[in-house]
C-alpha cells in the first residue's frame, strides 16, 4: 500500500514517488522505482507541467496517483480513490485542500470545464 511519511517532501520531486512506493530496497519492482530515472525520462520527453507554486498535479504527483491505483483492488483502484489519496497527501503535507464549496475552487472547476 502506498505510504508517505509525515516528514515534509517536495511534491514536485520524484523522490515522493520513490519514498511512497519503495519502503525497502528488497521489495519487488525496486529496479523500476528509481526517482532519478523517472526524472530523466520526464526531462528527456519534455514532460513539464504543474510548475506553479500552488498547483497540485505535478508530473511526480500524477505518476504517484496513477501507479497507486495498481496497488489497490476494487473501488480503491478508481480515479476517484486516487484523487482522494492525492488530497490526503496534500493535507498531510500541510497544504490547503480545495473544497468544492470554495469560490476559488469553483472558479478553477468552471475554467477547466470551459464554463
From TrEMBL:
It comes from Gimesia algae. This is Uncharacterized protein. The lineage of its organism: Bacteria, Pseudomonadati, Planctomycetota, Planctomycetia, Planctomycetales.
Amino acid at each position: 500500500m502506498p505510504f508517505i511519511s509525515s516528514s515534509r517532501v517536495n511534491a514536485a520531486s520524484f523522490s515522493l514517488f520513490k519514498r511512497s512506493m519503495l519502503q525497502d530496497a528488497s521489495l519487488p519492482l525496486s529496479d523500476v522505482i528509481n526517482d532519478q530515472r523517472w526524472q530523466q525520462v520526464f526531462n528527456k520527453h519534455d514532460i513539464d507541467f504543474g510548475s506553479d507554486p500552488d498547483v497540485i498535479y505535478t508530473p511526480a504527483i500524477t505518476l504517484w496517483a496513477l501507479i497507486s491505483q495498481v496497488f489497490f483492488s476494487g473501488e480503491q483502484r478508481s480515479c476517484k480513490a486516487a484523487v482522494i489519496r492525492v488530497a490526503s497527501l496534500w493535507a498531510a503535507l500541510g497544504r490547503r485542500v480545495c473544497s468544492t464549496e470554495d469560490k476559488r475552487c469553483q472558479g478553477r472547476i468552471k475554467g477547466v470545464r470551459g464554463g
